Amino acid sequence: MNCECLNNIVTAVADINSAYAANGVDITLNLAGTTLTNYSGTSSSQALSDIRGTSDGQMNEIHALRDQRAQILLPSFTMVGAAELVDLAST
User: Fold this and answer.
1) I need a labelling partner for 54 at 20 to 30 A (CA). Which of 45, 61, 68, 86 fits?
2) How does residue 19 score in pLDDT terms, banded at 50, 70 and 90?
3) What is the pLDDT of residue 70?
4) For the chain, what are the domain ranges?
5) At residue 81, does pLDDT exceed 70?
């Protein structure tokens, strides 16, 4: 994963935590890890569907990592813009 992409993810997590704190939400989002996947979905709703589905052949390596790390929340960060990042993270 290139440095710019990783920096964008770290910044998004920090921004989300700042928004939580500014609004009195007592929760902290922790970045458990990052990985790059070869995915050609065209919309945030399709990406969310594909990341939730475990028998559709999409993002299988992501499902394996989620199971291995026992993550409860797996937001899908895509390079499509900040608004969709927040939408996916909060869905």
Assistant:
1) 86
2) very high
3) 64
4) 3-90
5) no
